[in-house]
Amino acid sequence: MKDAQQIMALDAVVWDDNSSPEPLNWTSREDFLRHCQPGSQLVAVVDEQLCGYVGFRYPTMIRTNQHVFEINIAVHPQYQHEGIGTRLMEMVKAWASEQGIKKLSLRVLSSNPAALKFYKKCGFVIEGRLVNEFHVNGRYVDDVLMGYFMN
């Protein structure tokens, strides 16, 4: 809960037309906490400044789907390419393993090749593609579904 304001500020910087179907702007701290419950993020901090996070949740409320965490990751542009995203991925994999999770899943826009490359580097594989799922900035983009299978 103490990181909510900093995560909200990071979301406003990171989630734009290249990384999200539409910018992510929380209307209030309460709105954020309604959608992102406390304890559903691991955060990266440099010099007491939150510079990244990885969020996780069950993709559905169905009991038979609770071996999967759907994740989202954000690193402030100022701190990208310093290994923070990789460390966050390692941490969420370890946390998920401790929780008995068997698979991590995520969604990424086809218009974000840097993110696709990063996720592949982290061991994620493309499981599917929703073709022309979004119309962003005058063009159609695919929603790429990726998964990482725990050992």
TrEMBL record:
Acyltransferase among keywords: yes
Domain N-acetyltransferase: start-end pairs: 1-151
Pfam families: Acetyltransf_1 (PF00583)
Top-rank taxon: Bacteria
An example molecular function term from Gene Ontology annotations: acyltransferase activity, transferring groups other than amino-acyl groups
Entry keywords, A to Z: Acyltransferase, Transferase
Protein name as catalogued: GNAT family acetyltransferase
Lineage start: Bacteria, Bacillati, Bacillota, Bacilli, Bacillales
